[in-house]
Predict the structure.
Amino acid sequence: MDEVQRRACLYFLDHADPATGLVRDRARMEGREERHVSSIAATGFGLSALCIASERGYIQRDFAMRRVERTLTHLAKSTAHRSGFFPHFLDMRTGQRIWGCEFSSVDTAWLICGVLHCREAFESSRIKNLAGELYGRIDWPWMLNGGATLSHGWTPEAGFLPSRWNEYAELLAMYLLAIGSREHPIPASSWDAWERPLGTYEGITYIDPAAPLFVHQYSHAWFDFRGKRDGYADYFQNSKLATEAHRLFCMGQDKLFPWYGSDMWGVTASDSRVGYSVWGSPSLTEQPDGTLVPCASGGSVPFMPYECCLVLQNMLNRYGNNVWGRYGFVDAFHPGQGWYDPDVIVIDQGIMLLMAENARAGSVWNAMAAAPEPASAMRVVGFRA
């Protein structure tokens, strides 16, 4: 797991623009990379990566602080935003919106998670001031667009997107950030406004929004939900149940894909032989085709440490350098077809990095627990031991 973390941190060092600090969304495992597309979520993971790399001694602390300061400065002063919300995708060299993408609510939330992690991890007045500026200027009520739940985003061409965050997904962290904001909070009632649909697979009942496994991982990368619950659920236990159901689902595919089994499983939204696919849940329409995705198990390590680490070790033992390179595991691979993704997707490396750190030391959870705004939001919406 240390090597998984070390190599993931190397990605964030290699593929952050030296001037802006924005992180490349995906890159080749080996060789020259010419794409200049950043995602704002990747940059949030990258900020947390600098904290982890400094904590673990992969890089010097002063170097990490300078990188954080440079990144936050560009985000606060030069990167495109609307009411504090950032574009989903940007040109990493300029910080300007590309592809006509939305100014994204949830992707901005992942950035702010990384920003707050840095604010709590480094004793730098400049970092703290810039973090306060970035978080404080987000107009969360504007993103409600007159409703009880947050919109997925906004574009200057078409206004607010029709989709809302009105059903359980990777939304826990975003709502806690929005409710905990000092300058522009949304009402605590928004926490109760989204649905929590239940599903059952192989006798395991859990909140199941018919979505890939990553929705049960991302908020847990920064927020420690262990030993607490709100009026609806113990969300850490729910993610553990979702991971176990997913494991059983993959094991049940072994007649179609004999490489699947109790020690070789895991599919979530990822690259595939035919493009990017959103798959892997028992309740999703798009079913796996035999592809394996390392971050499915790697992003669930805190929930099922032995089972998830065993999968990663077996992937390395069985497929070696086909699946393992400079930045750790490839994004996805298909053993039956001999296909091994030449790319890594940074948010998939990022979720493995942060979840490994939480499982090993809890330093991300501890830093975020020290942030007063999300801690206040958890109290307001009714979390208790």
